[in-house]
Amino acid sequence: MPLPPLNLVTAAGLLAAVLGAVLGTALLLRPSGRAPVVLSAWPGLLWLYLQAIAAVAKGTPRKGRDAAAGSKAIQVALSRPCHFGHSRLRRYLALAGFSEGTAGAVPLMYPVVEGFRLVIQCMVLPAFPFNVLGSVLARTRVVALRRVGAEEKLTYSCRLEPGYRTTAKGDTEVDFVLECRGAAAPAAGGAAAAPGAAGSALVWRCVTTALILSPRRSKGPKPAAGQEPAGAAAAAAPLPAPAVIDTWRLGSDTGRRYGALNGDLNPIHLHALTSSLFGFKRPIAHALFLTGRAEASLRKAGLQPRYPVVLSAEFKRPTLLPATLKCAWLGLPPPAASATAAAAAGEHAAAVAAALESAEGARFAVLTEDLGKEVLVGAVSCRAEAVRAALGEE
Which residues have C-beta within 8 Å of that of residue 291, sequence separation ≥ 6? Predict the structure, then answer.
């Protein structure tokens, strides 16, 4: 007996049911994350966000011991070394303001653009005990043990560290560690490895702290005058006078453009319609993008890091797009009046080099247009003690 012909609506319904069954099965069979996950290739964006939808639907954050204990790290790694995506690198350099190029190397903040897909993969695995949408970034710290060439092949891995921390407001801090391994530096001074050189030495590490916002978070009681908690006075101390080195004008599409590069298509970064669902009237800029944009400005203003080097940043407030921001050195004297511009530039470069070796490092900030509010505050240091501390060796 012949089957009756299918109309368009029926065919579409059958196709949707088949696709739903296939995707549902794939989600059920994906790794839980309770054991290390090894991938043969980068996870696709569609697959990542299907997992994210499933993670949100499962009703995280979990209650009780699972979320608080964090007894085992969640680990995801690529099984083989990969080249940088040349198109992605070119678009990042243009977006972040590296107008003068990078002399065949990648910026300090670029490997996180390539590797952030592994961070997302960690956060959407069933073993991750929090809602992936309920998070913001609090701080980041990058350690580059040598110069990384644009033609190198590196092996990427990411782990979410156990031992989640609860803040005074009831939020939870989670550290994810993204690492790149490759050939060790062939010579002293942090030179890049030869293109195609293999190896398993640690080359680059980024530790970024995500803050999982609690729906029951507390603002806490306001302390009485003269009874501020320990450290409050230091935290409120004014920053050194900023020496503005660059002005950024960020368009409303900045979040979408950066998200297309690193895979972080969180709704808060995309459009006013989607960001408004999370309490933001306009889309907000990615904190890691602002750190990378600051690196470009600092390099144009005289930063010449000696390897190994540490770049750290603490994120103070979200930036609604479009926006105009200022990037500034902190605590560095302005170039002295000299007979020639070359002499002034030389004196300023010497001041930056001296700051890189100081205990605090060369400090910088990204500020609102009127210089009245901090967006992020950071430092760059080549001091050996700072590198060892960043690597957990002290």
Answer: 109, 140, 311, 313, 376, 378
